[in-house]
């Protein structure tokens, strides 16, 4: 067989296996939700914001740690992050730009 067919088979197998693992994780979480067991949790997360001001300075803002709801699964479900990920990354940071937004240009340095 040519190398292209091997690549297509390997790629197809990887996609199917990934979909099967995600589906199993979702079904296990659904079972936990229906059984009222440990489906959701809370983790203390500290948010830090870097606000880019118009004069090209950056203002740092730190928030108090606050509880964030998470799911006890391997993948994110229900628009919430997995608890294992938040426990390993309790400090979340985000860049905020206070300048005007233009969809036709991005003139950041």
Write up this protein.
This protein is α+β, with helices and mostly antiparallel strands and 109 residues long. It has one domain. It is built from two helices and four strands. The chain has helices at 3-34, 83-88, and strands at residues 40-52, 58-62, 66-71, 91-97. Strands 1, 2, 3 and 4 form a four-stranded mixed β-sheet that branches. The mean pLDDT is 86.
Describe this protein with a few key phrases.
single chain; 109 residues; alpha+beta; 4-stranded mixed β-sheet; 4 strands; 28% strand
Q: Brief overview, please?
A:
By secondary structure, the protein is α+β, with helices and mostly antiparallel strands.
Low-confidence stretches: none
Quote the beta fraction. 25-35%
Total E-strand runs: 4
Mean pLDDT: 86
**Radius of gyration, Cα only, in angstroms?**
21 Å
Question: Which word captures the global form?
Answer: flat
Number of domains: 1
Terminal Cα separation, in Å?
Answer: 50 Å
Global structural class: alpha+beta
User: DSSP helix count?
Assistant: 2
- Helix share bin: 25-40%
Which sheet architecture does the biggest sheet show? 4 strands, mixed
Question: What order do the helices and strands follow?
Answer: HEEEHE
List the SSEs and their pairings.
Blueprint: H1 3-34, E1 40-52, E2 58-62, E3 66-71, H2 83-88, E4 91-97
Parallel strand pairs: 1-4
Antiparallel strand pairs: 1-2, 1-3
């Amino acid at each position: 067989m040519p190398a292209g067919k091997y690549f297509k088979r390997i790629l197809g197998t990887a996609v199917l296996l990934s979909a099967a693992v995600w589906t199993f994780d979702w079904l296990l979480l659904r079972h936990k939700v229906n059984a009222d067991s440990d489906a959701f949790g809370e983790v203390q997360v500290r948010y830090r914001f870097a606000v880019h001001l118009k004069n090209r300075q950056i203002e740092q803002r730190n928030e108090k740690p606050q509880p964030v709801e998470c799911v006890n699964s391997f993948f994110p479900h229900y628009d919430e992050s997995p608890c294992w990920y938040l426990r390993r990354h309790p400090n979340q940071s985000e860049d905020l730009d206070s300048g005007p937004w233009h969809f036709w240009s991005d003139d950041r340095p």
